[in-house]
Amino acid sequence: MVNDKWFNDKFIIGLSPMDGYTDEPFRLVQAEISKPDVIFTEFVSAEGLSRGGVGLYDVLLYSPLERPIIGQIFGKDPESFYKSAIVLCHLGFDGVDINMGCPAKTVTQNGSGAALIAKPELASEIIKAARSGIDDWFNKKVTIDDLKLNQKTHAVIARNLKYSSHIPNIGAQPPTFSVKTRVGITESVVDAWIPHLLSHDLDFISLHGRTLKQGYSGLAAWQEIKKAATMAHQTSTKLFGNGDVTSPAQAIQYGQEFGADGVLIGRAALGNPWIFSADKEGSYEDKFHAMVRHAYHFNRIFPHRLFDSLRKHFLIYASGHPQAKQLRSQLVSLSSLDQLYAIEQDFLNC
Ligand SMILES: Cc1cc2nc3c(=O)[nH]c(=O)nc-3n(C[C@H](O)[C@H](O)[C@H](O)COP(=O)(O)O)c2cc1C
Q1: Quick one: pLDDT at residue 338?
Q2: What is the pLDDT of residue 264?
Q3: Are residue 211 and residue 87 in the same domain, yes or no?
Q4: Which residue from 253, 247, 251 is spatially nearest to 272, judged by alpha carbons?
Q5: What is residue 4's predicted lDDT score, i.e. its pLDDT?
Q6: Which pLDDT tens digit goes with each residue over 200-250?
Q7: Are residues 140 and 228 in the same domain?
Q8: Cα(16)–Cα(21) distance, rounded to whole angstroms?
Q9: Which residues of the chain have pLDDT under 70?
Q10: Is the C-beta atom of 244 inside 6 A of ligand 1?
């Protein structure tokens, strides 16, 4: 079974999901400039999707170029995971991933994300529900129509399918099914948590080597990832390590040293879309072109949105620039592609 999945027996270097960053314009630039072995969407609320939240479908826009593309869902209500898994299958995702690692208070206070590490029974129910959704959709026991979504939601689903050039049911392969998590809540509990997840016969687990309490501080504990990988190797589930990796060479080295079957790279990909093909920093010219491409896709995909949400990306592209301070003040006031073109010389002449 494992051999006909998108990862086969290959060492995987993938783009980690980042809410607020890895949206469709970002992912498209990434796939065009240097394509990761796998790409995740930002996480999307399972409860919101199952209620037919129209705006959430922007998060699930993907281009064929991004395949294999994995849709990531979070929440705490098993029934919503059943329904959301059906939505992701209908939209043609290559994988369905459950977030059990987000440390944000807005998510964990509600019992979702990394809070599920402390509730293994609920985590099991969620996993079983999502898997049933995938199985029922593929065995044609259920269709998107059975979810009783309203007309507006059906319209936005049709828009997504058109954008992704996907026709449901045609040539569809069951998606991979996975969980992305952390090593624990306040301390590592991989000895209990990973066997618990492994008992669910997932295709892979992505493990960020920090606890919920750590958030993004300190260092990722790759020794804990190594323990988890050793456990996973007794099963058919793959273990992808994650945390603080900044280049493909480092990913391969960590894979060898800590026994991971793959590595996800997150923050190091921001402002650095050539990261997956070479261990180089982009030149200022590269960065400017990537920024223009990013803004072009953003305008095309979300014509109704203001440039504001691009600013954080612009600032990252400009970080390290000798005239970063002056550039920053120009970048934060940009509101159109033409204005971006106008600062090209300032960006390149340094
Ligand atoms: C701004 C931001 C948003 C994130 N959003 C998500 C998310 O939606 N889903 C998820 O599983 N992890 C999310 N993460 C965690 C990353 O996927 C990754 O696990 C973490 O950043 C460690 O990897 P890195 O050191 O390579 O960045 C987010 C991280 C950051 C910094």
Answers
A1: 93
A2: 98
A3: yes
A4: 247
A5: 77
A6: 999 999 999 999 999 999 999 999 999 999 999 999 999 999 999 999 999
A7: yes
A8: 11
A9: 1-3, 171, 279-280, 350
A10: yes
Burial letters 101-137, b for 16+ CB under 10 A, else e: bbbbeebbeeebbbbbbbebebbbbbbebbbbbbebb
Task: State whether 320 and 179 are in the same domain.
Answer: no
Q: What sign results for the dihedral spanned by CA atoms 44, 48, 51, 52?
A: negative
17 upstream amide cis, omega within 30 of 0: no
Distance 65 CA to ligand 1 centre (A): 22
- The span from the CA of 156 to the CA of 22, in Å, is 20
Which single residue is written with the structure tokens 């498209």? 28
**326-347 pLDDT, tens per residue?**
889 999 999 999 999 999 888 8
Distance separating alpha carbons of residues 340 and 343, to the nearest angstrom: 6
CA of 37 to the centre of ligand 1 (A): 17
What number does the ligand 1 atom closest to the CA of 265 have?
A: 26
Of the candidates 321, 323, 343, the one whose C-alpha atom is nearest the C-alpha of residue 331 is 343
Q: Best substitution site from 267, 315, 316 to test ligand 1's pocket, by max atoms within 8 Å of Cβ?
A: 267
Based on the domain organization, do 227 and 325 belong to the same domain? no
Does any domain span residue 78? yes
Number of domains in the chain: 2
* d(CA 158, ligand 1 centre) in Å: 29
- Measured in angstroms, how far is the CA atom of residue 103 from the centroid of ligand 1? 10
Residue-range definition of the domain harbouring residue 338: 284-348
* pLDDT for res 105: 95
Distance of CA 180 to the CA centre of its chain: 10
